[in-house]
Design brief:
Layout lengths: L2 H20 L17 E4 L3 E2 L4 E2 L2 H8 L7 H27 L3 E3 L11 E10 L2 H5 L5 E2 L6 E11 L2 E11 L10 H17 L8 H25 L6 H6 L52
Parallel strand pairs: 1-4, 1-5, 2-5, 3-6
Antiparallel strand pairs: 5-7, 7-8
């Protein structure tokens, strides 16, 4: 083989390799760049380890009002499922507040045309020795010590790729909102619970608060990762498409010219001359004329 021919073959192979890299999509894009901004963030249900359970007598009593007396194991299962719905709803509400299009759902509904981030997790005991000591792990009734092992993955036509793995517990959650912000958060969580078709019965306040703290802790870590990836910033294409706004100077207030009023012409006052005090008034008597009597 001549040297020139081998050189052309090498160049052709290099060109095909570059073309293959250029057509490769997926989560990381070309040359291992960061993942593109996802269209949606899907938060799926949690998987609970055998040692994690939920006890909420108030919730169980509200379920019994339907006239169905559930067995103990079924009550625990339904209570844990309701806690799971509360955690997922809290995560979705936290992500939506940050500007992400988050939805509760399942990976089974995704297609190859979707570019979505999937947030999934597993609930387990934080202290592994607590399981051996038969400590109460879970939600309600003085239980605690639950840790969520989380995975954030990118799902696209290129397949599914893990982006982040972390763990979170309720203690890591930030300060809960207050006032109008708390009311807005509660309304947002209620909207997500309705979309999940969760049980209408509410959890007891202590169990609900524990589940929401854990969900908020998970959501805050996902938001922090989204900020690092630039997902919360407005895309450059959208910024370029916006018309440039030119701010014109504010018009000066019109000044009214007030014409100076000319003083009205005054008529000269006519004063009668006063008679001097030392002069006698003229004699008005007519003198006798001669020849007349």
């Amino acid at each position: 083989m001549r040297p020139s021919t081998s050189r052309f073959i090498v160049l052709g192979i290099a060109a095909l390799a570059l073309a293959g890299c250029a057509n490769t999509g997926g989560a990381n894009g070309m040359f291992g760049g960061g993942p593109a901004r996802p269209k949606t963030v899907l938060v799926v249900d949690f998987v609970a380890a055998p040692e994690v359970e939920a006890i909420d007598r108030g919730f169980s009593a509200r379920m019994d009002r339907k006239g169905i007396n559930y067995p103990i194991l079924e009550r625990k299962r339904r209570t844990l499922a309701r806690v799971d719905d509360e955690i997922v709803a809290s995560i979705v509400a936290t992500l939506r507040e940050a500007g992400l299009d988050a939805q509760p759902g399942s990976e089974e509904g995704l297609t190859l045309n979707d570019e979505s981030v999937v947030v999934s997790g597993r609930l387990r005991a934080g202290d592994q020795s607590s399981t051996a000591k038969n400590k109460q792990i879970g939600f309600g009734g003085g239980r605690g010590g639950v840790v969520a092992d989380m995975t954030v993955s990118y799902f696209s036509s290129g397949g599914k790729k893990q982006l982040l793995a972390f763990n979170a517990d309720a203690k890591a959650a930030g300060k809960p909102p207050a006032g109008k912000q708390a009311a807005a958060r509660n309304a947002a969580i209620a909207t997500v619970l309705a979309a999940e078709k969760a049980a209408p019965e509410k959890l007891s306040p202590d169990v609900e608060a524990q589940a929401r703290r854990l969900g908020r802790a998970v959501g805050e870590k996902v938001v922090a990762f989204a900020k690092e990836q630039g997902w919360l910033e407005q895309p450059a294409a959208a910024i370029a498409a916006q018309p440039e706004v030119v701010k014109l100077p504010e018009p000066k207030p019109a000044q009214k010219r007030v014409a100076a009023k000319k003083p009205a012409a005054q008529k000269p006052s006519v004063q009668k001359p006063e008679a001097p005090e030392d002069e006698e008034p003229p004699d008005t008597d007519v003198p006798d004329q001669p020849g007349k009597r």
